[in-house]
Amino acid sequence: MIYRVEGIVIRSTDYGEGNKIVTLLTDSAGKAGIMARGAKKVRSRHSSLVQPFTHGEFVYFRNAGLGQLNGGEILESNHRLREDLELSAYAAYAAELCDRAFQDDEAGAYLYHQLKACYDALREGKDPSVVIHLFEMKILEAAGYAPQLDVCVGCGSDRGPFRLSAAGGGLLCPRCRHRDSQAFPLEEGALKLLRLFGAIDLRRLGSIQVRPETRQQLKAALRSLMDAHLDLRLKTRGFLDQLERMNEPMPASAAEAAERRRLRAQERAAQEDAPEA
């Protein structure tokens, strides 16, 4: 049977001397694995089409097992996401989430459109950490684990201050916080953003300014929810976390100490280079 789908390459693996096996997240056929024969060769007509993060139209034949790629057209190459190390890390993490969190028939059109919107937002220069945390919320929703963020999951109270219980799947009020000793407090700004993430479609994301403290709480909240309900061990997540740590601004005291060391090194170098009297 011939399939013509719109999709995004979420995984690409070399196979044999010149072939690739790619996994597509599609708008109408869930996840689809297809063989792209000769795609490793530079002159192959399929080599660009099967690059990671490529959004395109794909035509393939499939009876059972892997499909066979017949042709297609690139709609958005997303080459910037591959060429920029930071953007590539975020894009790869989003792709692996889609690949690992859902079976082939569980990945519907909604997930496809959210991933496409995620890549569009990253390419357009929107805050990548905000984009990826919103995408994590969409993953939780699509998997059936959307957290309860309006009222307490224990008693239904709408009176805070609240703590977030990842294991409980939502907020705990002061009277119910004893139910989860691991529940952690959320500042008002972080809670408002989590509620916003649950309410909006990624395709409608505008520009959002987030304070560093709020950013850390968002990350802790979403990661706790993901770990509690999906329990995925993602290679891309470790690399992304390491990259984010490297990009964190240096504390003022550490920056001042580094500047003093630099000035002392310059003074020593100048003394060593000075001519003798």
TrEMBL record:
In terms of domain of life, where is this protein from?
Bacteria
Specify whether Nucleotide-binding is a keyword of the entry: no
The processes (GO biological process) annotated in the record are: DNA recombination; double-strand break repair
Query: What SUPFAM superfamilies does this protein map onto?
Result: ArfGap/RecO-like zinc finger (SSF57863), Nucleic acid-binding proteins (SSF50249)
Supply the Pfam families for this chain: RecO_C (PF02565), RecO_N (PF11967)
Query: Which UniProt key words apply to this protein?
Result: DNA damage, DNA recombination, DNA repair
Q: DNA replication/recombination mediator RecO N-terminal domain: from which residue to which, for each copy?
A: 1-77
The cellular component terms of Gene Ontology attached to this UniProt record, alphabetical and capped at eight, are:
bacterial nucleoid
Family matches, as InterPro entries: ARFGAP/RecO, DNA_rep/recomb_RecO_N, NA-bd_OB-fold, RecO, RecO_C
Q: Which family does it belong to?
A: Belongs to the RecO family.
- In UniProt terms, what function does this protein have? Involved in DNA repair and RecF pathway recombination.
Q: What is this protein called?
A: DNA repair protein RecO
Q: Which organism is it from?
A: Paenibacillus pasadenensis
The lineage is:
Bacteria, Bacillati, Bacillota, Bacilli, Bacillales
The gene it comes from is: recO
